[in-house]
Amino acid sequence: MKQHKITARSRILLVISAVMMVIVLFVPMWKIDLVAPQYPEGLALIIHPNGLRGNVDIINGLNHYIGMKHLHTEDFVEFTVLPYIIAFFAVLFLVIAFTRSKLLLNITTVLFICFGIIAMVDFWRWEYNYGHTLDPNAAIVVPGMAYQPPLIGFKQLLNFSAWAFPAAGGWLFVGAGVLLLFAAISERVRGKRQQRKVNNNIAAASALLILFTLSSCNSGPEPIQVGRDHCDYCKMMFSDARFGAEIVTAKGKVYKFDDAHCLLAFLKDGEAQRKEDEKIYFVSFSGDHAMIASGNAMLLKSDQLRSPMGGNIAAFENKDSLAKVQITFPGEVVSWKDIAIQ
Asked: Which one of 198, 228, 258 terminates a domain?
């Protein structure tokens, strides 16, 4: 299946996201602030993609008294692989912007979200182990006490108030993810709109095809519209539908005539050229002027009928309706075969 290309707007968002990810490599991602009476100015543990910064030595000295492990960058494998992962996503964003691949955009969005979730879970696990794994022989032991820092927000740890929030790099990371997700969702919405448009076009085309097929397959006569239709032989506009007749070809084409005379003349002039099977219909002189197949029509030929072109032939569905008119217009009763061979 052909893959749709992403829009220029999504490509711009991806380039911006890539730049943001590159900046993440050089700025702090997370920050934990510790405030206590003895440290009114506060202590900070600043987490970069490749290591720890801030008041690490002072915090390690304080942790020694309560039995917490010392913090060393080399003890965390995350600081080794994280810069490469961030750089990988930055490059991948640029690749998508260049190739305009919607499929790659969707895959990358899922990978980025999964990575973000895994990173936060790993951070929480690290804080849990850091705050719960204590030396039982420490100088200060508080039974049941744990010192797990907050993942985000505030937590009281003895006489220290701990605050944890994303730093500039963390917000840039989140921002890049939001732009990536927005691009993926907007492309999905656009794809659905395009698909609906295609489906609507297909439905419209199908409807037209069905209508065309039905109209092509329609082999019946059409109502004659007085004042609008013209005779296909004499070209006169219909002024009286009672004497009308029609030819319907096998392909559904309808020829209309305002008089049996025009019908017969048309058949005589075109008999040698037409190869199509034909059906002949006459308008019923009486009643609602329904169309009658020539084989079922009872025809009255009378000079007193005075039809538009002098054919003076009227068609009837049954003997009763013919007999009533024959009283006023006496004449000869004939069949279609009788007049067709003349």
From this structure: 198
